[in-house]
Amino acid sequence: MCEKCSKGKFYITTPIYYPSARLHIGHAYCTVATDTMARYKRLQGYDVMFLTGTDEHGQKIEDKAEAAGVTPQQFVDEIVTGPKGVQDLWKLMNISYDRFIRTTDDYHVAAIQKIFRKMYDNGDIYKGTYKGKYCKPCESFWTESQLKDGKCPDCGREVQDAEEEAYFFRLSKYAGRVRDLLMNTDYLEPRSRVNEMVSNFIDPGLEDLCVSRTSFTWGVPVDFDPGHVVYVWIDALFNYMTALGFENDRYHDLDKYWPADVHFVGKEIVRFHSIIWPAMLMSLNLPLPKKVYGHGWLNFNGEKMSKSRGNVVDPYILAERFGVDALRFFLLRTFPFGSDGNFTNELLINTINVDLANDLGNLVSRTVAMAQKYFGEKLSDVQEADEALDAPLIDMVSTLRDRYEAQMDKFAFQNGLGEIFKVIARANKYIDENAPWVLAKDEAKKPRLARVLYNLLETIRICGGLLTPFMPDTAAEIQKRLGGAAMDWDSLAQFGVLARDVVTVAGPALFPRIDVEKELQALEAMNKPAEPELPLAEAKPEIAFDDFEKVDMTVVKVLTCENVKKSEKLLKFTLDDGTGTPRIILSGIAKYYKPEELVGKTLVAVTNLAPRKMMGQMSCGMLLSAERGDQLKLVMVDDSIPAGARLV
Ligand code: ME8
Predict the structure, then answer these.
(1) From the CB of residue 47, how many other CB atoms can be counted at a distance below 10 Å?
(2) From the centroid of its chain, how far is CA 49?
């Protein structure tokens, strides 16, 4: 139990992200959910440790860094700590993590080496030969029997044959204990994922796991066998403990926080967290985490979110247009956490309009505006509640915290919000039932009017307080409008905490209504598919400087340009090359340009190329153009460069 508070500790983690590309809104989903749970537990009075971070080793990163012409460390540094990188994104999304681990941190690397050696020393890691299949994008090894139609069962992509000397972890030894853990405890939720793990992976026979690689170097070196690097999932999974100080001196709160109360993970990595992770902890006689929760995936317009398909939903764009709170709210209000969901811009805008602008926003604006109109800043003369008129609302609000808590404790974010929004809808109905504007016409009914407004303000206080984990800024704004009213956990279970002479503060609409059509068009325009990756032409062999010097590249101006009769490909150029005699060049670029658009342009030509006959006409030289894939552009230079200038 923590000394500071009565509730105890709560240790929650997100998966640590691969910084192989910029994160999209699907990645933010899990982190927003984790942040909401962490804030909820803090609100309840728990001493929370919320860990997130980045998983920076592996062949995929090594390959990408090489393609980008930088070192793997430079590559990951840019994506993790650079502008609009992972850490910036979490700042933007108001993610209140307590600790951020990078698996390239020195203390973690050294700890992983010790952990690997411990399992080697206890006989659970041994050396053998690896023969099998490897999925590079997933960094996963598979046996033939695990493949689905010969492809990676996780991502459906091609796998490669792999054979090399490698270390193995005796996963098979733990099959029985892991099966028992999954079948007979609440370790893994939702329950449907248990059947998936047991029938797809454990019951067909768990084989020992290959836990080292020699074909690349970007990983934690096995310190007693140079050339081997530790399998990235061992490196990654132990982050949950090294970040607390396991096998290192950087942190010292392992005893306080371990075992984790819950690991939130996406469904495709449940296998690692529910089979490999507990087996390794069993091998080291360490306590197991209390729970792994495998959430669903978000698709975009029915398709998998991916950068190459051009359907990435950029959290920066969405947050800028709709606000961070609206985005956070949408993710958890719309999709049940344990199931897959389909993100569409229309759904996002409609959710903001209906729930936030209409229901919540209107309730707050109308109530505060009426309180100020009829009473000024300070409410007064509040009479006692009317049993018949007020009990339905007051009863519902007084018990809201309990219903919300029951859902939140099951990680049912959507249902927790559902409870709040039922109350908000009821409160809006209460306004219509009690018609404060009618009461206001009769001075004798002022105390009743005050009670009606008080009930509404108190409803807003409790709903606002319970919304804090989801929308921290909005909750703070609501609190301000209620004159800094209490929003601590205990007060949220009590109707009547708000002072009867509460001072209200007016403000602009919390969530302005969005014009659906206009906004959809704007988003559509921004979400044009990304440029397809174009193949690079093969590089030519090296040439000597003297060879390069032999080529005359001259700036030329287009005097005339026309199609060549009977040719679909050729354009005929008459060019000023500075000599005073027009030069004729034929070029096979008719597919890319209309002749008239080139007249007057300043181009570059190779002018000492031997003349060539094409379609019965002589061509004296060649115009330079740049080509990639099926795109081609003439090389055009600044018009101020005179014809005849040589490229040197
Ligand atoms: O898996 N919808 O990292 P990662 C919902 N490094 N969740 C999604 C998603 C989507 N469209 N796309 C990705 C890794 N995610 C490992 C974790 S933990 C010891 C190591 C989720 O960057 C995905 O399910 O590929 C995963 O939980 C998280 O983003 C990080 O994915």
Answers:
(1) 18
(2) 21
Write the residue with the smallest CA distance to atom 30 of ligand 1. Answer: 17
What is the C-alpha to C-alpha distance for residues 448 and 498, in angstroms, rounded to an integer? 17
Q: What is the pLDDT of residue 528?
A: 62
Q: Compute the distance from residue 379 Cα to the ligand 1 centre, in Å.
A: 50
Nearest CA to ligand 1 atom 19: 237
CA 498 to mean position of chain CA atoms: 39
Long-range contact set of residues 592-601: C-beta below 8 Å, sequence gap at least 24: 592/632, 592/633, 593/634, 595/561, 595/562, 595/563, 595/571, 596/561, 598/558, 598/561, 598/571, 598/573, 598/634, 599/558, 599/559, 599/560, 599/561, 600/557, 600/558, 601/557, 601/558, 601/634, 601/636, 601/639
pLDDT at residue 3 greater than cutoff 80:
no
Q: Shortest CA distance to 175 belongs to which of 149, 207, 221, 199?
A: 207
In sequence order, what are the residues at sequence separation of 6 or more whose Cβ sits closer than 8 angstroms to the Cβ of residue 114? 247
Give residue 534 CA to ligand 1 midpoint distance, Å: 27
| Residue 2: pLDDT band with limits 50, 70, 90 | very low
What is the length of the chain?
A: 648
**Which atom of ligand 1 is nearest the CA belonging to 54?**
6
Q: What is the DSSP letter of 314?
A: -
Which residue's entry shows tokens 């958890």? 332
CB 379 within 8 A of CB 450: yes
Q: Tell me the β-bridge partners of 562.
A: 572
pTM of the full structure: 0.81
Pocket of ligand 1 (CB under 6 A): 15-18, 26-27, 29-30, 55, 236-237, 239, 265-266, 268-269, 297-298, 305
Beta strands in 278-336 (DSSP E): 292-295, 298-300, 303-304
Q: What does the pLDDT look like over 151-197, one tens digit per residue? A: 988 888 899 888 878 999 999 999 999 999 999 999 999 999 999 99
Torsion angle defined by CA atoms of residues 24, 29, 31 and 37, in that order, rounded to the nearest 10 degrees: 170
Instruction: Output the pLDDT for position 1.
Output: 47
Residue identifier of the C-alpha nearest atom 31 of ligand 1: 17
Q: CA torsion, points 577, 580, 586, 591, in degrees to nearest 10? A: 60
Cis peptide before 289 (omega within 30 of 0): no
CA 161–ligand 1 middle distance (angstroms): 25
Residue with tokens 């009743």: 448
Nearest CA to ligand 1 atom 9: 26
SS (H, E, C) 105-121: CHHHHHHHHHHHHHHHH
Report CA(228)–ligand 1 centroid distance (Å).
Answer: 26
Q: What stretches of 387-484 adopt beta strand conformation (E)?
A: none
| Ligand 1 atom closest to the CA of 298, numbered from 1 | 2
- Is the model's pLDDT at 629 over the cut of 80? no
Per-residue DSSP letter, 413 = H
Contact indicator for 126, 167 with CB cutoff of 8 Å: yes
- Exposed, middle or buried by CB within 10 Å (0-12, 13-18, 19+), for 565? exposed
CA of 21 to the centre of ligand 1 (A): 12
Which of 143, 153, 413, 410 has its CA nearest to residue 268? 153
Ligand 1 geometric centre to CA of 304 (Å): 13
